[in-house]
Design a protein that fits this description.
The structure is a homodimer. Chain A folds into two domains: about 90 residues, Winged helix-like DNA-binding domain superfamily/Winged helix DNA-binding domain (Arc Repressor Mutant, subunit A), CATH 1.10.10.10; about 60 residues, Dna Ligase, domain 1. Chain A is about 40% helix and about 20% strand. Chain A contains five helices and six strands, in the order ααβααββββαβ. By secondary structure, chain A is an alpha+beta fold. The relative contact order of chain A is 0.14. In chain A, the strands form two sheets. Chain A has a three-stranded antiparallel sheet with strand order 1-3-2. A three-stranded mixed sheet of chain A has the order 5-4-6. Chain A is globular and about 45 Å long. At the A-B interface, strand 2, helix 5 and strand 6 of A face strand 2, helix 5 and strand 6 of B. Chain A binds a DNA duplex through helix 4.
Chain lengths: ~160, ~160
DNA sequence: GTGTGTGCAAATCATTTGCAAGGGA
DNA sequence: TCCCTTGCAAATGATTTGCACACAC
């Protein structure tokens, strides 16, 4: 799906909620779309938005991300480093974002397979629990990372 | 394993680290052992410890939990409600704590099966990633919870 | 003594909120 | 006009830190 179609869809969701797609909100969404692979914190988003729209306030970013999370447009997540991180949920990878978190360098890789379908069916049958979303993170080490010191891209380690 | 054996083991870990098992630390550990099923926040631990040891300071609780987490004696986790929660990792359920989080009532159930062994082998082969720990949480709703208002045992909902 | 651990109060950091003002249907 | 939204500044809440004192080997 292309950018403007995504934005259209998000605009519709906002409308249904009685909200508007203001210019600030649109820029925030664009930033999220452009960084779909990363897991941006509110501060990250703020700084990226500031480049294109310097008058923006941090509170607006927080409020917008909160709103988008309520509407299930973004997923709010927590890797234990004390900041919330936000991911735009494109249809393609919705409900199937698993993470590999390297304990040595903090690298965070996203795995785009859904390994849990059977488990979820089992949960519904055996536990009477209807799964709406899940989260699967693995902490460990990459082979290549074992010896030397590494990049430490990201400090999202619990 | 009984309580004093657990404590002995923890004492040994601390020693190896050049730290001591002070009385405050011991009481904190005991509180964690007594509430192994819950997911206590630092504040929770603080209040429980205060009953037995009123002079304790909140900072000490934080420092101790941090220390225990570094030594992998407790697991620090985050359910997205803004507070870190701590779990003592007894051998019996180490590395296999999955959660069901009810979106309606916030109930948090712990599942004690390890469903991920095969996946972890696959990760090692296909991704060169050696798993040390994992985390699997499901968000959804319980059948019984669907209609009426419920217990709200725990407010750990994202 | 030396180094580790503690309680307290103050500092910090992420996030939220109150409020007066802006802007579009 | 009405209601949603915004920026700013101040408030909040969790966690951390500085520091002087206490304790154990």
């Amino acid at each position: 799906m292309n950018i403007s179609a995504e934005i259209e869809k998000i605009k519709r969701s906002l409308m249904e909620n009685g909200s508007k797609l203001t210019s600030q909100r649109e820029i925030i969404v664009r930033v999220l779309l452009e960084n779909e692979k990363d897991h941006l914190s509110a501060e990250d988003v703020f700084m990226l938005v500031k480049v294109k729209f310097p008058e923006i306030g941090l509170a607006t970013v927080y409020r917008t991300l909160e709103l988008l999370a309520e509407l299930q447009i973004v997923a709010k997540m927590n890797f234990g480093d004390g900041v919330a991180r936000y991911d735009l949920r494109g249809e393609d990878h919705e409900h199937m974002h698993h993470h590999l978190i390297c304990q040595r360098c903090g690298a965070l890789e996203e795995i785009k397979e859904d390994w849990l379908t059977e488990l979820e069916e089992r949960l519904e049958k055996e536990y009477g629990f209807k799964v709406l979303d899940h989260r699967l993170d693995f902490t460990g080490t990459y082979k290549e990372c074992s010896n030397s010191e590494c990049k430490r891209l990201n400090k999202a380690v619990s």
